Amino acid sequence: MVKKTFVISDMHCANCVMRLEGLEDDLPGIRYIRGSYHRQTLEVEFDETQLSEEQLRAAIARLGYTAQA
Amino acid sequence: MDPLWMVALITGLTTGGLSCMLVQGGLLTTSLASQLEAELRTRKPARSGQGTRGSAAGRNLLQPILLFLGAKLFAYTVLGFALGALGSVLSLTPGMRGALQIAIGIFMVGNALRMLQVHPVFRYFNLEPPARVTRALRRKSKQATGLTPLVLGAMTVLIPCGVTQSMMALAMGTGSPLLGAGILFAFTLGASPVFFGLTYLAMRLGALLEKNFARVAAAGLILLGLWTLDGGLNLVGSPVSLSRLPRMVAEAVSPGTGLQSFSASGDGGISPFARQDAVPVSDKITIEVGDNGYTPDRVRAPANQPVQLQLVTRGTYSCSRAFLIPSLDLSALLPARGVETLDIPPQKPGTRLQFTCSMGMFTGVITFQ
């Protein structure tokens, strides 16, 4: 398991958080996901044997957001 | 109609619909898309998936959208009733209501600045729902049943947008369950046409357009926030408020402009004079209380002696009937028609007594000399 916190500075409302947290329904291997509009972050704990960080970043980008390190 | 309901309705029509759409629209559109995809899969199992959202928009959408909006309207009306009841239990004094209203005004302007992304600190003006709530809502929105829009519509009370949160605070500030329910009913009703129309568009719109919606909604919210803040300042008896600013400037430039004195005539009638002059001021002041405020709204009275303030209503139904002098903690709920007399104790020369309606919307001042 890997725990990673992405800074997503283009979240602009609570709905953005919900959209991003919805990734747990679409991607395999996500054990925990929690977004914060206040902090502009997305915390993800995932199984790297099922999901790579690149795949995660790409999925975030597909939703229209930019994941910074 | 009470002006507050009207304000809530107009707020809903102008900024509320756009702002709610940003936060809650995603739920509805996801639910609609899931429903349409499910229908399509049932009919043509081989052709499910992408492309459904766009092509299906406009088909079979009326019923779920109406269910969603109807449930939302009902849920918010109940919420308004509960908030109004809570406000009444707390039995807020005018000063506390004023302070609450000032806080609401700051909250609204802060939310607008958040929407305009002025500074990261303003993000804290938007309350984040708990993760459990957002997860439940998200899961529900992906279920494709006929009841889903109904449940989601009612559950939008759990994720109010910034403007809605402001209206909720306003409903609580009234301290009346009926007025609270009325405010949130009018607001949600007002927001419904915009929500309805935009739902069609939202099936195709991305984050780019949402940002423009936010800008429009934020501009409206700033105006409304300043209006609320102004009411709060009037309610706490502040000598300075935004609505009185032009008048204060005019007075500073040309002292006495618009000030009215009352001469004591034999029959107790009034003779208002448009400008400051040598006419002796009367110990009996008469003010007409109308739906749109007080006439005259600037009067003079003699200092160092008791003064009788006669408030005349002739079919008045707005909040101007709830008359208040904050600094004396003197208030009266006037009848729709009739005359109510308030006794004002002796005041020192130069004292300026601000008077206002219970919501701080209509104001005036009595100057003692």
From TrEMBL, chain A:
GO terms for molecular function: metal ion binding. It comes from the Bacteria. Residues 2-68 form the HMA domain. Pfam families: HMA. SUPFAM superfamilies: HMA, heavy metal-associated domain. InterPro entries: HMA_dom, HMA_dom_sf. This is Copper chaperone. It comes from Anaerolinea thermolimosa.
UniProtKB/TrEMBL annotation, chain B:
Keywords: Membrane, Transmembrane, Transmembrane helix. The keyword Membrane applies. It holds the Pfam family Cupredoxin_1. Residues 282-367 form the EfeO-type cupredoxin-like domain. The keyword Transmembrane helix applies. The chain crosses the membrane at residues 6-33, 65-86, 98-116, 147-172, 178-201, 213-229. Residues 8-227 form the Urease accessory protein UreH-like transmembrane domain. This is Uncharacterized conserved protein.
